[in-house]
Amino acid sequence: MYSPATWRLVVHGAAPGAANMAIDEAILSALVDGRVPPTLRFYAWAPPCLSLGRGQPASDVDVAACCAGGVNVVRRPTGGRAIFHIDELTYSVALLQSDLRAEGGVVESYRRLSEGLLAGLRSLGVDAVQAAGQHRPSSEQKAICFETSSAYEITAGGRKLVGSAQWRARGGVLQHGSLPLCGDLSRIVSYLALSDEQRAAERCSLSACALTLEEALGRPTSFEQTAVALAAGLASALNLTLIPGTLTDYERSLAVGLYAPGGRYAALD
What we know:
Low-confidence stretches: 136-140
Largest sheet: 8 strands, mixed
CATH superfamily: Bira Bifunctional Protein, Domain 2
Strand content: 25-35%
Number of domains: 1
CATH class: Alpha Beta
Structural class: alpha/beta
């Protein structure tokens, strides 16, 4: 059992992808600087956004299709592959590596944090489990995050439900993840640099490998209801008291710098 801890809970509405990534990094920096407590954040995206993992090549993006479709493109500070952010709830957790909840390597901390996500999803009625994970050499990795489940990511009925990624810097840990609430997960293929044949194959693959929360439950669930359930699950599994809060002026200043022209998230690298 973890020692009791108090974390801040921040719930935001929808924002552009670059702003969301800037805020996540700003929270982590403020935490490491000793300015804020560990933080759980929930947020959404508007306009729709295609995010790439930290090391994913920009050539995976169909830039013309994204421009025509009004889709933003951003590079996440975390690893992983492409995610199309629309009709979803995204969570982020910022904590210190010295916290027992982040102890061990990336995979072990995935397991610990996933226990909270599982508890929340199960309270909604989802028969969710932690994935055993699939290891593929980098030469065989595909461009889409939801095609494969990493160790301890969340699945339901053998299909991926939550895609998560982690970044560690200066003694801090940022983990964030995407939970699709509804809609067609295959929409992502329209914004990747694929041939028509590849797009057709990827649509079939995604239908078999991933699902939305609405599919898992057989009914729609709102962003607000889902956020409440996940917060309660994480609080219970990780022995947390969550105190609702907002960003500090220090975090806002850091985020503005990261999001402004010339900042890390002003445009895709």
